[in-house]
Each structure stands twice: as structure tokens, then as C-alpha cells.
Amino acid sequence: MDHIFEKYILKKPENLIPLLQEIQKENGYLTDEIIERVSAHLNIPTNKIYGVATFYDQFRFKQKGKYHIQVCRGTSCYLCSSTSYLKEIEKLLKVKAGSLSRDKKFSFETVSCMGGCSQSPVIRINDKTYHHLSLAELHTLIRSLREKTE
Amino acid sequence: MPTQAITDNRAFLVEKVIKNYSGIFDASTTERVAVIRRDKISRPVIYLGTGTSGSISGAKATLGKINSYLSEARFSADIIEVGCTGFCSAEPLLDIQLPGKTRLSFRNVTEDKVEDILNSVFHHTLPDDHILGQYKQDGLEEWPNIPMLEQISWFSLQRRHILKNAGIISPASIEDYIVRGGYKSLYKTVLNYPADKICEIIEQSELRGRGGGGYPTGKKWKVALDTAGDQKFMICNADESDPGAFMDRAVIESDPHRVIEGIAIAAYAIGASQAIIYVRTDYENSLKILEQAIGQAKDYGMIGEDIFGSGFNLSVSIRQGAGAFVCGEETALLSSLEGQRGLPRSKPPFPAEKGLWEHPTVINNVETLANVPGILENGPGWFKAVGTKYSKGTKLFSIAGKSVYTGFIEVPMGLTFSTIISQIAGGVKDGRALKAVQLGGPSGVCIPPADLETPLDYEALSDKGVNLGLGGLIILDDKTCMVNLARYFIEFLQNESCGKCIPCREGTSKMLDILEGITKRPKEESTHETLERFKGVVQLENLASVIRDTSLCGLGRNAPNPVLSSLKWFREEFEEHIFDRKCSAGVCHDLRSFYIDVDLCNGCNICQKKCPENAIVGSLKMPHFIIESKCTGCAICFDACKFSAIFFK
Ligand SMILES: Cc1cc2nc3c(=O)[nH]c(=O)nc-3n(C[C@H](O)[C@H](O)[C@H](O)COP(=O)(O)O)c2cc1C
């Protein structure tokens, strides 16, 4: 992570959010150690950093699974019953949105809108976005990912 | 391509094209421009829409298939990745242009369709299916019996100024933009006009901010220009925080240089040397495209130091939002840029006087800025010629939800809802009835069918108490429950309330409680709770006026809109939920009543065993019966029944 800190040498408060963003991109989530290091680096108290980071939905304090599932909850997807995806995934993975499955393979969360409204409902797993999946297709997809061993 | 050639093209484009005032080219320039524009090609060109909606629809797989087809068939062709024309429901869109012939467009080209289509076109025949139309291109041979794209219903009513290049050019190529007139307006601006003249031209055009407020853009620039300050900032608001709106994203992905040129002109007009584009977190493709475009613009000298030798300097940087709806609001956006929690500030002072770190700052929406190069190129009169009395120009709308076609469009201000829905979007999907059109994001309103003749412009809408917002239209069919939808929006707003002011924070939370009470059915309800539910509508109305009148920023002030508009136009649906405990749209699951079809039930007894409320009676091998007063609508029996004998109303 050193290279990210090196990019933001200036102790400017406006570097806080971009710095956290880049770290999260690399590490997947933020930890106490990271927050402390950022605090020392930018000279901003940790409570202030927590205050900022918890304000924004983007920042995550829990580990991501190998497969990170994002269910869109935007208006268009909501109307095209993306809620049924949510329920189905909760049932399949036995976890609630925002958490990690027992085997650490899956994490899932809802997002407010992916901008894929013309293709609603959409759902993203890692980098791939799917649209108009039936519940059965979703089932098969998740099962195949679960069984995949690498 | 060797670097030598690129540098050559750059010098050619800057000296011969951008700086050519008359726009009249000599023969060799004309020839070279035609080649760069790909009007004149020596081998086939395949264009594929790989913007967000294209990618979601499978464009990447289509691309893979095109490549493998070409290498197997030993055909040589150029492949150009383009953004989106706006006809998203037809994605993946694939265009093919053969030398000497017009560009043909095909819709819904998933990977399995590639071979068929390419095979036919390369052999100068046409496949039976998937043809959308052909582009109008002077001097090229037309395909017989194929409609012009501009004639098909999705496009025929559009007036494409901002979207002129969308889906046609490569967003990864600054050359594509320049040979279509790009960066000429910037050149004209920095060389010919003092800053106040630019503000004046924009003011004369009567361009109004497309971010929702509709504030006159030229006026805002003038305030920033006239405010003393050694440092000023130009900010492009690309947060597009309304779920259901995606046209800002589309403009950036399809024609990024138009936005950058608009930013550069705006920065010049207000005297700013720093510009920031604030892009929504989830828009990864937009970020990538913008980064690339900014790099090219720097390389070409369109931004950076001493632009066109005028002494005007401009650095443009990108900042990624962090997923907070309120940060679309300009003062919250500023807080976020300063590294704070995205809390809005009270106005005045307005950002144009005291913005980023107290410096004069102009914040404009993507679409507002994308309008600017065209106004400078064609004059304010050209811009004003389109639109209505107080709302000039065109407006982008995104269309999503239950219409036959979805995507984004650019139409003259003042078209009616019904024209857009029936003529452009093809009406409601699956032959269902239209229930309402949702407009203006989560704090917007639902327009009932009776009001669909309202023109879409700032005045006509504000007469009805409606805010145009960013221009996201969501088509709702008769399977939509308006109470549940209002609950959804309030839940969203309550989640996104930044918590700074009490009316918004507590008010939305109380509203949500009431709406949940109306849409859910508790196992047991005390008489007090029943009474509270009965008072629901009155309480909602009271709360709404307090939240509206006392909140700090637009989020809170507009938060009651979805509830108020639904109460106004769909009141009977609220009453049905409250008094009859029914949801005729069948959306509020708790309020469903389940019944057993005696003809289908064979008395297997499974439902009775599974019912947690003991609401099902009947003896083995005899049709069963559900006691309505005991049923909580959990649907366990419905899921358990193997004979589809259980249904709900
Ligand atoms: C809650 C809220 C959210 C907003 N979201 C956006 C947005 O996503 N994009 C945008 O351009 N303007 C948004 N605005 C409007 C901005 O505050 C601001 O008026 C606009 O960016 C100014 O640009 P314009 O004059 O070009 O319209 C929002 C306003 C509010 C109150």
C-alpha cells in the first residue's frame, strides 16, 4: 500500500477521500490499522476519519468475498422486482445484505443505482453485470460459482 | 499506428481544422478529414456500442465473437467501440459500414447473431432480422428499402444537439470529435472574446441549468466572474445521484470531449484556472473514459498551459464521489471535495461567491456544460430557436421502467409526456395500462395519466408543483402500487438524509414508520395502533408541510414530494391500504389475502401443517379453506402447495 501513500504526500484534508478510495480499491475494505495509518499520514484524528468514512456508502469495513454480489436497488430495478433477487440471495447464501458468507466465498450488498436502468433489473458479480436474470438462472449462477474451485 | 503519424494528425487537426475559421477546406484537407471521419474507408468498419448499457447487454461477448469471426473468415475490418445512441433497449447495437455505402445499424446483436449478420453484409446482402436502419450520409450509396435511422420512431421526434455524436464516434478518440467541429468553439472563445462576453452570450441564449434548479447559467457565471478572487473553480457535477437517471453518464461515455470543451469555455468565462469533474462512484466506465479524454485534450493543448497561445491556463482533474445521494447537491458536493462529510451548507452565500475553500466556484451539471460548445459555435439565437417561451433548447431524458423501449433521448423542451411515452418509448410493455410517470428522482413526483398532456418544461411543470430534476422518466404500469412506491422513495431519502437538520432526519424517519404501518400487517394490532393507522394520511400531510418548510437543503425540502403527489393523485389507493387492508396491485405482500381453489385442492394437508397461524382448516383428502381473519399473508402455504391451488387477491 506504500505506493498509494506516496502518491498523496501533501497533508491536505481533501486528500482523505481519494486516499481511502484507492486503499479500498486495493485492499477491498478498510481496517483499523489502515485508518490509523491514514491518520498518521494526513495528520487527521482517527475519529474524524471514521466520521467521514462512515458517512459515505462506498466505504466498507468488512471483508469482501471472493465473489462480491451487488444488487441494484435503483427505482427502475426496484420496480422490476430486484427485491426478489435480494430475498433469493439471502436464502441461498444464508446471509443478510452487507455481510460475508460463512465460507468467505460470497459477500453481497445493495447499491443505490448502477445507471443500468434501461436494462433493469441488473445485478453485478465482481466485474460482470447481468440483466433480466430469472431466479432460476441466478440460482444456477451462484451454485456454479460456489462449486468452482481454484 | 506509429507515433509519427499521430503527431502528424495532431498538428493537422489543430492547424487546419480547429483553427480554420471559415470551415471551408481545400481539397487535400477535405480528403484527409473524410478519411478521419471514416466517410471514406478502404475496408469495412464495424462499430459496436460498448458503453454501460451495451456492456450490460452483452457487447463484450459480441466483440469477442466479431474478432473470432474476422480471423476465421480471414476478413479484414476495423472495429470501433462507440458509446450509445440512446436506444438502450436495442443494445448491443452493431453498425457496419462498407466502403462507398452508408452505415447500417443492427439491434440486439448478441454474440449468437454476429456470424449471420456479418456474413450477409460482407456479401452485400441483408439478413432477415435485426436491421434497425441506416445513417444518412451524403455522397454514399444508400441500402435499398432500409429506413433512415432518423425516420424510425425512437429518433424521429428527437433534436440531437448534445447527442449529435453519441453512439456514432469513438469516445476514445479526440480526432473523432475534432473532425466533427470539436474544440473550435474553445478556440474561438479564448482568442476572440473577453470573459464577460462569453457570460453574455450564454445569458442571451437563455440556457438554464439542467441539474434540476433551472437557474440561468450565464447569470451564475457572471456572479463568479464579478466576484473578486485570486483563485476560482469550475466544477462539473457528474454525480447524477438520482436513481433512474442515466443521461449524464451516457453523454460522458459517448462524447466526453464535448463535456471537456464545455468545462474549458466555462472556466474561461469565470476566470478559473482549475476545473474538477465530480463523477459518481458507480460510474467506472465514465471514469475510465474521462481520464483518457483528459489525457488526450492535454496532449492536444486543448487544456493545460497557455491554451492556443492565449495565456489561458486550465487544469482539469477528476474526483470520484463516494456514494452519498446528498452530494449531488452543490454545497454538499463542495464539503465532500474538501474532504469532509458531505453536509450541505446554508445559502447564501452562494458557491459562485463563496464556494470551494471559500473561493468563487461555479457548479454546473454535465448536460448544461455539454450545451455550451454548440451555443458558441452556432450563436445564442440558434439555441433559443428551439424550446418554449421560458425554457429554451433541448433536454435530455432517460426513459426506464415499463415502457416498450428504454434509453435516453434529446428532444426540444416542451414536448408532452404523452408524446414521449406513446410516440418515442412505444407505450407500455406487455400491453398493460399506464399508471403514472415518475419524474425527478426519489424526491420527484408521479404524474397521473390525466396530466400527461403537460409539456415538459420548467414553467409548465412548476405550475403543477413539479421539479423537472435531472430528467429521469420512469414509466409505471398498472401493476405498480403507489403506496409501496412512496414508501420506497421515503426509505431511500431517509437513508440518504445526511442528518444535519432535524426536520429531514426525523421527519423522513417518521414518515417511513407511517408508510410501513400502512403497507404491512402486524400479527396483532392494538386498538391504539389501528387508530394511528387510520390517522396515517392526515399525519403524513402534516409532517410533509413541516419537512418542506423547515429543511436546510433541497433533499429535505423535496423529500415529501413523492408522498404528497401520490396522496393527491392516488389517494384512494392509500385509503384502500389503510381501511380495507388491501393492495389491489398485489405488491404489498403483507396485505394479500390468500384463497384456496376448491377444484384444484386435493386435500393433501401440507398447507395446513405449514401454516404458522393455524389459519387453514380442512380434513384430509377434502378441499381446504383459509380463514381470512387469521391469515397474515406470509405466503408459506402458497409456496408449499404443489397443486397451484392457492391464489391471492
Ligand atoms: C438532493 C439534491 C441532489 C442533487 N443531485 C444533483 C445531481 O446529481 N446532478 C446535478 O447536476 N445536480 C444535482 N442537484 C442540483 C445541484 O445542487 C446544482 O443545482 C446543480 O448541479 C447546478 O448545475 P446547473 O446550474 O448546471 O443545473 C441536486 C440537488 C439536490 C437538492
Structure description:
The complex is a heterodimer of chains A (150) and B (649). Chain A has 150 residues and is an alpha+beta fold. Chain A contains 7 helices and 5 strands, in the order ααααβααββββα. Chain A has a 5-stranded mixed sheet with strand order 2-3-1-4-5, with helices on one face. In chain A, β2 (99-100) and β3 (106-111) form a beta hairpin. Chain A is elongated, with a radius of gyration of 18 Å. Chain B is an alpha/beta fold and 649 residues long. Chain B folds into 5 domains: 38-148, Glutaredoxin; 174-198 and 221-361, Rossmann fold (3-Layer(aba) Sandwich); 394-477, Ubiquitin-like (UB roll); 482-580, de novo design (two linked rop proteins) (Up-down Bundle), CATH 1.20.1440; 592-648, 2-Layer Sandwich (Alpha-Beta Plaits). Chain B contains 27 helices and 18 strands. The longest helix of chain B is centred in the C-terminal third of the chain and has 18 residues, at 502-519. Chain B is globular and about 95 Å long. The N and C termini of chain B lie far apart (66 Å). The model of chain B is unreliable at 1-5 (pLDDT under 50). The A-B interface holds A 12-18, 21, 51-52, 55-59, 73-76, 78-80, 111-120, 122, 129-131 and B 52-53, 55-57, 88-89, 91, 240, 242-246, 249, 280-283, 319-325, 336-342, 398-402, 406-408, 438, 442, 472, 474, 476, 480, 485, 488-489, 492, 496, 498. Flavin mononucleotide is lined by residues 209-213, 215, 217, 237, 239-242, 326, 328-330, 363-365, 368, 470, 553-555 of chain B.
Q: How many strands appear in the DSSP assignment of chain B?
A: 18
Number of domains of chain A: 2
Task: State the helical fraction of chain B.
Answer: 40-55%
What separation lies between the terminal Cα atoms of chain A? 26 Å
Report the principal-axis shape of chain A: elongated
Return the average pLDDT of chain A rounded to an integer. Answer: 92
Helices and strands of chain A, in order, run as HHHHEHHEEEEH
CATH architecture of the largest domain in chain B: 3-Layer(aba) Sandwich
Round the Cα radius of gyration of chain A to an integer and report it: 18 Å
- In the CATH hierarchy, the third-tier topology of the largest domain in chain B is known as Rossmann fold
Uncertain segments of chain A are: none
In helices, the fraction of residues of chain A equals 40-55%
Q: What would you say the CATH architecture of the largest domain in chain A is?
A: 3-Layer(aba) Sandwich
Low-pLDDT sequence parts of chain B: 1-5
